[in-house]
Description:
Strand order of the largest sheet: 2-1-5-8-9-4-3
Helix content: 10-25%
Largest sheet: 7 strands, antiparallel
CATH class: Mainly Beta
Radius of gyration: 19 Å
CATH topology: Pnp Oxidase, Chain A
Order of helices and strands: HHEEEEHEHHEEEEEE
Number of domains: 1
Amino acid sequence: MDNKIYFDTETIDRLEKQQRVHLINSLGGFKSVALVGTSDTQGKTNLGIFSSFFHIGANPPLIGMIFRPSPPERDTMRNIVDTHFYTINHINESIYKQAHQTSARYDKDISEFDATGLKTEYKNNFFAPFVAESTIQLGIEFREKMDISINNTILIIGEIIQIYIPEDCLHKDGFIDLEKANTITCSGLDSYHKTFQLDRLSYAKPDKEITSLLQN
């Protein structure tokens, strides 16, 4: 792979809109992708696919997600800010097409749960709906909203307050076996991928050789 195509700022700016969108969205590599479940103050459900999640901290357990500029109005973000609760649901191989369909711009009165056939699941008195078909589910409480002026996007920060993981996918040290959970990943805006674990390595220290934890 020695022959590489070179892009500079001028080249990127001259690209056709969709070509530029696909190029830039793919550059970050594989990303977390999940379904975000919300309800409005009247209990009307909403479901949307997102690939802009990132870990912020473990204590407290915080997770961030980016919302693109509005308009159009983002039902998911409005519900999060109004009710303070939402769910993050891992996508697996059996539901990725339905998950992708939630990105369609349905009318406000239509729930993506109903439109795609995915089932709502309520448990432990959590306000927002989980996706019943999802293997790993997180219940999130809204903590902070930050406006990013450089491109008019919005950062939503939430605290993980509920976690549901299959027993056989959780290691004794807290590590989650995502392959066993059948969690998939994505690249760009429309490409979905299964993963294969290469290794799991020991904690890196200057005076200690790295070892494989899979051999222990």
